[in-house]
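Fill in residues.
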């Protein structure tokens, strides 16, 4: 009799547990807003942003979701990231669809902070923009829901120039040629690079601004060949533009190292550049730290999406931010107590795949540095991105590019 009672009790507990989770999972899903440039000139960033959010969401849902509720992704295509489209995305996702979190790679520089700052929903952005910080600082008490998980443009130049001066290579001269696209983000990187080079006694022998997506480099290459700089720094947001430059450059290469911040992190850079991408140096401000955990993450991501788009910074960054948010929601106990969630994010260091995230109140933007979020520096070697710095996570050594005569 006791045995039957005990068996009945066990069955009752199991049924209660199953019913509880069934009811919880049957509750309305938690909606996640994902504004991205899914079409237009920045669609490569939109694609990796979408894949990154999907990857993180699938992992979270496979572990029971958040507070027993699954996550549901709702997208908004901001196309060419014009301000009116960014404002419309916030209205649609937050007011129209009632999302409880907004995550993106990037959708604009500063306008997005104000667009989503009209609401209290936590907003994770990877614009790497000083304009975003400027917008936040206009009214921190209003825009407390903004969190930028990338450092800013100036850091691209500071970190990149420092590494260019550290690599084991003897430059033939101290001349730099700078090329940038005609947008604020690229202008800031180019101007900072120029300032740093001049400060170290280098001469700027050329500085050109081109339209977004430019693929004809004849005129600029003529000037480069006439000045023969030791460094060519090129900053664009178009892998197609940079691949075209490299192809045309190799018809008559100068004795120049080529440094291209950020854009080579897009997987299509190596695909488009092919053999001409070999030897290119590039850096970003957020990257998965090498090691067993990173290897497992990359393998799983590649298996899921069939390519190596993990090479860009966003998959690991968005993974970290969404899991950080899950921690915050679990700690607070409510998904819609946005201020309490934001306070947790602001005050709690989070150790993720890319390092340790800390959000100082002054900027609500992560701190870049080896002890926080290290800034990786790479060289394309044998069709792969080989990390040269930081030293603690290096995967190989600098190789003098084949077009350089030694």
């Amino acid at each position: 009799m006791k045995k039957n009672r005990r068996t009945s009790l066990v069955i009752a507990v199991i049924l209660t547990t199953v019913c509880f989770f069934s009811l919880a999972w049957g509750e309305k899903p938690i909606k996640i807003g994902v504004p991205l440039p899914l079409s237009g000139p920045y669609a490569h960033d939109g694609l990796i942003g979408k894949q990154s959010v999907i990857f993180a969401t699938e992992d979270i849902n496979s572990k029971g979701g958040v507070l027993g509720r699954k996550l549901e992704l709702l997208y908004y295509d901001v196309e060419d990231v014009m301000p009116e489209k960014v404002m419309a995305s916030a209205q649609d996702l937050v007011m129209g669809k009632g999302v409880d979190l907004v995550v993106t790679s990037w959708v604009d520089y500063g306008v997005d902070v104000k667009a989503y700052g009209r609401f209290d929903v936590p907003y994770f952005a990877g614009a790497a923009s000083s304009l975003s910080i400027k917008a936040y600082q206009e009214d921190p008490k209003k825009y407390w829901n903004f969190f930028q998980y990338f450092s800013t443009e100036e850091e691209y130049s500071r970190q990149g120039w420092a590494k260019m001066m550290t690599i084991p290579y003897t430059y033939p001269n101290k001349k730099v040629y700078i090329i940038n696209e005609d947008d604020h983000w690229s202008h800031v990187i180019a101007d900072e690079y120029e300032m740093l080079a001049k400060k170290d006694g280098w001469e700027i022998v050329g500085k050109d601004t081109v339209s977004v997506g430019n693929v004809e480099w004849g005129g600029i290459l003529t000037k480069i060949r006439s000045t023969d700089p030791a460094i060519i720094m090129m900053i664009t947001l178009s892998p197609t533009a940079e691949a075209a430059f490299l192809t045309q450059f190799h018809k008559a290469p100068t004795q120049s190292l080529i440094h291209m911040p950020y854009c080579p992190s897009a997987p299509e850079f190596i695909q488009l550049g092919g053999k001409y991408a070999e030897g290119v140096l590039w850096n970003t401000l957020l990257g998965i730290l090498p090691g067993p955990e990173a290897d497992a993450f990359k393998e799983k991501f590649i298996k899921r999406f069939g390519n190596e788009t993990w090479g860009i910074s966003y998959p690991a960054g968005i993974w970290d931010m969404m899991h950080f948010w899950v921690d915050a929601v679990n700690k607070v106990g409510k998904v819609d107590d946005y201020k309490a969630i934001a306070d947790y994010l602001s005050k709690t260091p989070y150790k993720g795949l890319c390092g340790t995230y800390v959000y100082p109140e002054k900027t609500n933007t992560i701190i870049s540095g080896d002890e926080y979020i290290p800034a990786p520096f790479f060289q394309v070697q044998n069709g792969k991105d080989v990390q040269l710095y930081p030293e603690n996570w290096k995967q190989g050594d600098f190789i003098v590019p084949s077009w350089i005569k030694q």
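The first strand starts at residue 30 and ends at 36.
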